[in-house]
Amino acid sequence: MKRARVGWVVGAVAAAVVLAGCGDGGGDAKPSSSPSASSRVVEPRSAFEVYQGVTAAGCTDADDCQAFMTRKLAAAVKVREAMQAKDSAVYAEPIGAVDEAERQADHYGRSNLGAKGNSLAVSLPLQRMVAWFREHPEG
Question: Are 16 and 50 in contact (CB under 8 A)?
Answer without folding.
Answer: yes
